[in-house]
Amino acid sequence: MIKDWNELELDQELKIDKDPIGKLQLVKYAGASGDFNMIHTDEETAKKVGLPGIIAHGMISMGVLGNFVNEIVGNQGFVSRLQVKFVGMVPLGQSLTCKARVIRKDEERRQVDLKISTEMEPGKFATLGEASIKYF
């Protein structure tokens, strides 16, 4: 997915489909983050609080999106800004499609600004945001 500075153009869209969110991923994230809320790992608990089932931690969708932005720049620069808001719950087993659209390309600073999102299906968003990539 690495995109060279010269390959990126204003309004260009990039996207990639990610693997489904698995239970092991949720358990590992709970351990790493300290967020042991059972709605992220136990079906019965999730349903008791009115959810349809286990949902992923919001920060997992942010992490997937941040990783996607990092995949775009690769070793040619770095992600200098990542800002998101969570707009949808991601159920266990859900695949995410990461999208980025180039909204600004600053030649002098060698910086690309992106509108970014994760979608569970077309038009059903989990995460919306913006990111900046600084190229070397």
Characterization of this structure:
- The protein is an alpha+beta fold and 136 residues long.
- Helices cover 24% and strands 35% of the residues.
- It is elongated and about 55 Å long.
- The mean pLDDT is 96.
In short:
This protein is an alpha+beta fold. It has helices at residues 23-33, 43-48, 58-73; strands at 13-17, 77-86, 97-106, 111-121, 124-135.
Topology:
Elements: E1 13-17, H1 23-33, H2 43-48, H3 58-73, E2 77-86, E3 97-106, E4 111-121, E5 124-135
Antiparallel strand pairs: 1-3, 2-5, 3-4, 4-5
Number of strands: 5
Number of helices: 3
State the order of secondary-structure elements, H for helix, E for strand: EHHHEEEE
The level-1 CATH class? Alpha Beta
Secondary structure: helix percent: 10-25%
Structural class of the helix and strand makeup? alpha+beta
User: Largest sheet, if any?
Assistant: 5 strands, antiparallel
Major β-sheet strand ordering: 1-3-4-5-2
Report the radius of gyration as a whole number of Å. Answer: 16 Å
